[in-house]
Amino acid sequence: MDKKKDKYYGVDAGFRNTKGFLVPYKGLRYHLQDYRGSEREPQNAKELFNYRHSSLRNVIERTFGAWKNRFRILKQGMNHYDIDTQVKIGIAYAVLHNYLQKCQSSDEIFMVYEHEDIVAEDIDQQMAQSNNVGSSSRSHDREMQVQREEIVCTMWEDYIKD
């Protein structure tokens, strides 16, 4: 299996690290504010992974926050649309978001959410758990753990080179 073609969701700790779901390491620093300041840099490969996982999650949540403020339908919900239409709407919003950012660089809504100091709200842990309980076998759990370790080692090697 070509690992470069594997796909997975970066999810919060409410999920299991199983096939298709890449979770942060539990029991280690995770949230961005835990890494603020020059003396609080990641100390090992797992902390670096958690820091980057948290950074990515924060960017995604800020993007959705901007979208919800810009495109009202996302606040109201799209449940009455079939899944194919929901996917198309999401893609259209991504295109519109990028277009507006390029053409209206002073857009107030996007400016509020573009600052990295804004920490997006955490995802509801109960919802995450209810969506992932009992959804995988132990072999899938182990497979994703191996994949996560490969990512972590590569990240750390690149990090200590710089």
From TrEMBL:
The keyword Metal-binding applies. Keywords: Hydrolase, Metal-binding, Nuclease, Nucleus. Its cofactor is a divalent metal cation. It is found in: Nucleus. Pfam families: DDE_Tnp_4 (PF13359). GO terms for cellular component: nucleus. PANTHER family: NUCLEASE HARBI1, PTHR22930. This is DDE Tnp4 domain-containing protein. It comes from Solanum stoloniferum. The lineage of its organism: Eukaryota, Viridiplantae, Streptophyta, Embryophyta, Tracheophyta.
